[in-house]
Design a protein that fits this description.
about 5% strand, disordered N terminus, about 70% helix, mainly alpha, 6 helices
Length: about 210
């Protein structure tokens, strides 16, 4: 029966590395972790091919030369990649700064727009409130005028009859009291709470509402 369990990536194998090669193996491992496995394998294949095709007398010289060339190529590749990364990083930073500046401008304009809307709303509310007060005042005045008929001036006898006092009392209070006090005195005795003021030119008493 075939094994139906899903395939797993084989674990890393531990091998002994000669002391002179430890530094190079660490560098290759670092490049592998950076995702440059293809370049590393290609360089190692070239190195192995060179070692296998060379004679034993030139083994160490070719190994050192090939290893140096590979390391130089890898360093160059890393340097170019680093420069490209730095260039992209600077470009991204510039784009972010530009976007932040545009966003700040949009937010500022939105705040100004919102403030303008608030001011317009306040103005409209004030206008509406003023119109309501004016309309209410007009109706109140109209109602008061309709409920209060125009009073005609009265003679001394007519005022005495209206206030329920004698003519002599009217005359005495008018002479003894200042005009505003006489108006108040009449108002307290008038059934409609209306004050009366004396006009010397006509000799008549006029209503004071």
């Amino acid at each position: 029966m075939s094994d139906s369990s899903p395939s797993h990536k084989p674990p890393s194998q531990m091998i002994r590395v000669p002391t002179p090669l430890i530094g190079a193996v660490r560098e290759l491992s670092r490049l592998h972790r950076q995702g440059r496995t293809t370049e590393v394998l290609k360089g190692l294949e070239e190195l192995i091919f060179t070692l296998e095709s060379s004679s034993s007398s030139r083994y160490y010289d070719n190994f050192s030369k090939s290893l140096s060339e590979i390391m130089e190529r890898l360093n160059k590749l890393e340097s170019n990649s680093g420069d490209e990364y730095s260039s992209n990083e600077v470009y991204d930073a510039e784009r972010i700064d530009d976007l932040e500046e545009k966003i700040e401008g949009i937010v500022s304009r939105m705040e100004q727009f919102a403030e303008a809307i608030i001011q317009i709303q306040k103005y409209l509310n004030n206008q509406q409130f003023a119109q309501k007060r004016k309309k209410k005042s007009y109706y109140n005045n109209s109602y008061y005028q309709s409920q209060t008929p125009r009073m005609k001036p009265l003679t001394e006898e007519g005022l005495a009859k209206r206030l329920g006092v004698s003519v002599e009392t009217i005359r005495k209070e008018r002479i003894d009291l200042p005009s505003p006090h006489f108006v108040g005195w009449c108002k307290r005795r008038d059934s409609s709470n209306i004050g009366w003021e004396y006009n010397q030119d006509t000799g008549l008493y006029y209503p004071v509402l």
